[in-house]
Amino acid sequence: QKFLVGAVPCIVQFLFSNEYSWMREKVISYKITVTPPSADSLTAGRRRRATACLDAVKTDLETAQTRLDVAQSQKAKLQEEVAQMIKLLEEKKKAWQVAEKEEQWLSARTALRQEQVSLLLSRLEDGWPDEKKQMDEKKEG
What we know:
Oligomer: single chain
Structural class: mainly alpha
Number of strands: 0
Distance between the termini: 159 Å
Order of helices and strands: HH
């Protein structure tokens, strides 16, 4: 009997059974011939495998291209967001510097105004030097 394996690697297993004759010995002879596949069969097998590989590579290429497009789009969006954040940060820095300058100016102004309030209260309580002279002259005269 002949077995056709083809161009696909496989294992052919032969099983001999002595199931029906336990008591008597049998002599079996057999012959196994391995014939390599023909050149046409080899070429056809290679072409089938190459076609299958090409399909797998094309599918992977499509998937990778789709993922690449998504990644590039996401990268562009993130770059734009970072640029907006940098711009906002610069604006906040400028606003902070303005607030800091205003704080310094207002601190100096409040110190000056406190000194002025103190001096004016002192004048109102104690009077001015020329008023003291007039008061002293009125008391004497």
